[in-house]
Amino acid sequence: MRTASCSCGQLRIEVDGEPLGIGVCHCLACQRRTGSVFAALASFAPPYRVHGQATEYVRAGDHGSRFRFCFCPVCGTTVFHTEEGCEARSVSVAIGAFADPAFPPPRASVYDRRRHPWVSLPPGVDAFDEDPP
After folding, report:
1. What's the fold here for domain 2-98+105-115?
2. In what order do the strands lie in the sheet with 12-15?
3. How buried is 44 (Cβ within 10 angstroms: 0-12 exposed, 13-18 middle, 19+ buried)?
């Protein structure tokens, strides 16, 4: 089991098993959402357990999918998100919310065409100009 939490600890998510996927997203929406130059995410299969209260923000992706981002109403940290209609398949958790420097590296990089030129990817990462459908 792994636990990810917001900065103040009010919102937490517990996930089981190894990640289904680990990636970074360089789209402009993720850059704005995180306040960083990319988002780093790990997806996990259910079941997962959420503790605390979350405020939600829903955003449409480029291919029409709707993503529900859950963040702490106290400190504002985004902790996880789901894709509407796919909640039974996976949850995506912000890697930084695990606060684990030993967390495995990303395997994929999406919206690589938006990657800042000074950001280097680890060897072996599959890079996609956009988000593959």
Report:
1. 2.170.150
2. 2-5, 12-15, 48-51
3. buried
pTM over 0.85: yes
Ramachandran angles phi, psi of 97, nearest 5°: -70, -15
* pLDDT of the residue at 48: 96
Q: What are the residues facing 129 on neighbouring strands?
A: none
Nearest to 42 by CA among 112, 91, 115, 99: 91
Cα-flanking dihedrals φ and ψ of residue 90, to 5°? -170, 165
Q: Contact at 8 Å (CB) between 92 and 84?
A: no
Rounded distance, CA 6 to CA 98, Å? 9
Average pLDDT, the chain: 94
Dist CA 4 CA 76 (whole Å): 14
Q: What is the mean pLDDT of residues 63-91?
A: 90
Element (H, E) at 33: helix 28-34
Rounded Cα–Cα distance for residues 62 and 82 (Å): 16
